Amino acid sequence: MERVLLFGGSGILGTEVLRMLQNGKIDYVAPRSFNLDIRVRNLVSDLVQDFKPTWILNCAAWTNVDGAEDSFEEACELNEVAVENIAIAAKGIGCKVIHVSTDYVFDGESEAPYIEDSLVNPINKYGESKLKGEKTLLAVLPGSFVVRTSWLYGVKGKNFVKTIAGKALRNEPAMVVDDQVGCPTSSRDLAAGIVSITRIHPVPGVYNFSNEGSCSWFELAIAIYKSVGADPQLVEAIDSNSLNVKAKRPKFSVLNKDKWKMAQLSQVPEWHSSLELVLPEIVTELRQLGEV
Ligand SMILES: NC(=O)c1ccc[n+]([C@@H]2O[C@H](COP(=O)([O-])OP(=O)(O)OC[C@H]3O[C@@H](n4cnc5c(N)ncnc54)[C@H](OP(=O)(O)O)[C@@H]3O)[C@@H](O)[C@H]2O)c1
Fold first, then answer.
1. Burial class (CB in 10 A: 0-12, 13-18, 19+), 136
2. Whose CA is nearest to atom 24 of ligand 1?
3. Residues marked as catalytic
4. Ligand 1 atom closest to the CA of 7, numbered from 1
5. What is the tens place of the pLDDT at every residue in 177-191?
6. How many Å lie between the centroid of ligand 1 and the Cα of residue 219?
7. Cut 0.90: pTM above it
């Protein structure tokens, strides 16, 4: 019987992983940060020694991309030091770790989808901190799994799809960049993917997972407006230079999923079909939050 320790179970991705653990009747614990701060090494090791998980799933992270530019040390505390704490604790009892990373480890200059072995070269501090975390984990515990993902969205937490759906439902205009191309990832699909690793036990290492296909943020926004029945002409394309944000973003960050598919892990649905499945729940959530 698997025993799972989940960190970050309240985030965009973590809530979907938590749901899968609950539905799968898996023995798990999922502490919030106010109960267990993963930056504190002995707290992590005590819980791991006590609960003795067979898997640790790390969905916790510093995810404020612009904030990381001025708060790099704090970002690294969570994206590197906490990951090291998890790796050391896991090594102590011989359990496996699945850690989530990002397309922002790449510089976006490629014209072809990035494979797991593509040259990493982050162009912002968030990407740098996440890359440090990947390297630390694999150095301490080479049998671990790093799952790189991109453009994550879901029902819970702050994310682009939810923000744009809110604007669409309020019939507000949206200015969205059309010069960054990537692939949206439904947190539900990724959660299923993470759980599939615990069942299939593929070769350890780095794996890419996003939904299939690619689009710009502008194209994604248009799809959202259309899907909720709003006027897509309310969406205006702008270029990244006109945005007043601190961190640079890669122009192109589509991830190649061939390794994932070869390992026969979970399905990789096309981004548009996953969006259509999740959007009604996002709309319900926005109504419940009183945002629309
Ligand atoms: N969002 C994206 O577009 C995106 C894209 C690519 C990759 N990723 C990666 O995907 C993963 C999941 O991201 P997400 O967007 O789902 O994250 P998120 O919604 O920002 O959630 C972050 C999680 O981290 C936890 N956390 C924060 N500080 C903590 C601490 N000191 N100790 C323990 N837990 C702490 C939070 O728990 P509490 O609520 O309890 O504080 C929360 O559950 C991350 O590794 C991220 O880098 C995200």
1. buried
2. 60
3. 126
4. 34
5. 999 999 999 999 999
6. 25
7. yes
